[in-house]
Amino acid sequence: MSVYESYDEVSADYDKTRVPIGAEIIADCLAGGPAPLSEVSLLDAGCGSGAYSAAMVDRVGHVDAIDLNGGMLAVARLKLRQQERQGRIAFHQGNITELPFAEGRFDGLMANQVLHHLDSGEDPALPVLDKALAHFHRVLKPGGVVVINTCTREQLRRGYWYYGMIPEALKRALKTHASLEGIEEKLTRAGFEPTGHRVPLDQVMQGQAYFDPRGPLKPEWRKGDSIWAMVSAEELAKAEARVRAMDGDGALDDYVAERDSGRAFVGQFTFIHARKG
To answer: Contact at 8 Å (CB) between 1 and 46?
Structure first.
């Protein structure tokens, strides 16, 4: 699905530096929907390696997980093979802008760190996002809950210490991420009633790996954040040289601490929730 990340290559290493933060927020939002949480039929739209499906499958009644990438689906199915055998989760290969499900099938839907991978070409209005939200609305029951896990533009600028090392890639990434207000407006146009947003300030996308000051030097570490896929070979060489130079000067830890200081105020992820009217 991603227009800039090769997830067939990334899938084998993806979970080494990714943590499904905010699962408790998703569960709390779903509990306000049309069914008790333990009975919720949940769609994981753009499930990737299945980390969020794994975090939710024991909390809800049933999970359907869909992703366009076969490599990611293979990782997810291996991770959740027992739950799949038990009939608690089903996997589907497909595009979230053309969901292959009947109208009103699900009580809840979650889309975790996926919408910025949709291809809107050079159109800053991100029309493909409208298409995805229209499908989200169609497959939810009346009163159904959608939870969108995304990064705001401010979070991208201030919530990740290493983006200062790849400024050109960050500029490209900002164009693929709709603003918080923009997403809420698009949800309203799609027929949803936005009900708020939440930011977990004390959690980080990569778990403890996030704090590794030498992480940018490691291919497996970089695979945990798709924005590194936007980095050219020349930009990567500059970033690696900068890390090595600061490490040699004893300045690397101070750089990380200074650049990371904004995260305490903005967090890294935002969970936007809305209800189908």
So the answer is: yes
What is residue 44's three-state secondary structure?
strand
- The first and second tokens of residue 217, run together, are 């030097």
pLDDT at 261 over 60: yes
Please state the rounded mean pLDDT for residues 40-56: 97
Given 3-state DSSP classes, what are the helix, strand and coil percentages for the chain, each rounded to the nearest 5?
A: 50, 15, 35
Is pLDDT above 60 for 125?
A: yes
Tokens standing for 37?
Answer: 């949480």
- Is 90 exceeded by the pLDDT of residue 11? no
Calculate Rg over the CA atoms of the chain: 19
Say if residues 199 and 269 touch (Cβ distance below 8 Å).
Answer: yes
DSSP code per residue over 82-133: HHHHTTSEEEEE--TTS--S-TT-EEEEEEES-GGGS--TT-TT-HHHHHHH
Q: What is the pLDDT of residues 154-181, one digit of tens each?
A: 999 999 999 999 999 999 999 999 999 9
What count of other Cβ atoms lies within 10 Å of the Cβ of residue 177?
19
Query: Residue 173 is encoded by which pair of tokens?
Result: 């990434």
Spatial CB neighbours of 245, under 8 Å, sequence gap ≥ 6: none
- Can you spell out the DSSP letters for 194-234? EEEEE--TT--TTGGGGG-TTGGG-HHHHTTSGGGGG--HH
Query: Average pLDDT of 27-31?
Result: 97
Contact 71, 48 (CB under 8 A): no
CA quadruple 120, 133, 49, 176: dihedral sign: positive
Cα gap 40→152, rounded to integer Å: 28
86 close to 18: Cβ distance less than 8 angstroms: no
pLDDT at site 4: 43
